[in-house]
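Encoded backbone
================
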Amino acid sequence: MTIVIIIISVVVSLIAILNQGVSQKLRFNAYAIKHFKEWYRFFTYALIHADWMHLLVNMFVLYSFGMAVENYFSIVFPGKATFYFIILYIGGIIISVTPAYSKNKDNVYYNAVGASGAVSAVVFSSIIFFPTAGIRFLFIPFAIPSVVFGILYLIYSAYMAKRSRDNIGHDAHFWGAIFGIAYTIIIKPRLALLFFEQIRQYFA
């Protein structure tokens, strides 16, 4: 399913990058949703991206973590993995921009694009499964536990969302991540116990 989502996102994003009319029609605009009832924008904004780099980063992260989450789901939910993964992704799309909708439904100039909120949901779902798995960055010579990365990411996203001084949807990143955590635990509560047990053993 991850590959299917990537293919669709790449195709639609490339069309939108080359045709601004398509981009304008599909992007998240809270004003258009409220006043013109264009509810489809709650979904379609995640299929388009601001530029090539935005698309590349989101799809690379989605591929890296999406395949792993699908594999986890296939073990925990045999026969239902694809269904649960689709709900995770779509839920991340909707939930991540719901706060932005509430704040900007009368702001005609507010727009958002990109699958970052949904990708955050997938990343944090993987953290619930394996909180001690190492995550590496080019500028850090060693791996850090995914749970540490997750905590720092949430703090950073919450802080930057309050500042609101750039054009990055930090609030979407934050709420997408929160949804990924909550959804994964709700569909399999026992994962919460396994999550803390893994952390306890790692830091013991």
Q: What stands out?
A: The mean pLDDT is 91. The beta strands are 134-137, 140-145. The domain at 2-203 is CATH 1.20.1540.10 (Rhomboid-like fold). The chain has one domain: 2-203.
